[in-house]
Amino acid sequence: MLYGPPAAGKDTVTSALTAVDDRYVYFDRLKAGSGKSSGYRPTSADHLAQLHDRHLIVYANERYGNIYAVDSPRLDEIIIAGRVPVVHLGQVAGITALRTGYPARWLTILLWCPRDITRARLHTRGSSDLEERLRVWDETQADLAAAEPGTFTMVLRTDQRTPAATADLIHRTLTGDPHNVPPLREPLP
């Protein structure tokens, strides 16, 4: 699980992970709503409700006027194929939901960058909703402050290491390769 505020590097680190080992696969969440559909499995709110009624939704949240969901059938599909799902989350409640609702050997990684770096990254990628995403950054920081100790296996600053170095560290930690693994908890600003 990759947790972090907008523009912390979840997509970039996931791309780097898939370059390290093709067993890693981005978990494409279900999305009901409008806007960007790339990277999601578009669906309807009615379909999500049906899946929820059948206890197939592990976690769902609303953000940016949309509903996003992690479903157990897609997790099953990835894991049965011998692959490693990389799930992006922006709420600590999602981490808890996945740990309790879909027991597995989860590695929980907080990807972090300061707010000014987030602003610069959002500006560079041409985000049209900059202020809303910065508000979400603030919400993520507050959510993080309420997280239980031990919520994260790793805390990594994406403004202090390259995506490739971050992916390599995650891969070595997941595969148990202890050679030169740096500290897994980097200080937050």
UniProtKB/TrEMBL annotation:
Name of the molecule in the record: Guanylate kinase
Enzyme Commission number, as recorded: 2.7.4.8
MF terms (GO), sorted A to Z: GMP kinase activity
**Which keywords accompany this UniProt record?**
Kinase, Transferase
Question: What is the source species?
Answer: Candidatus Protofrankia californiensis
User: Kinase among the record's keywords?
Assistant: yes
Q: What's the superkingdom here? A: Bacteria
InterPro entries from the entry? P-loop_NTPase
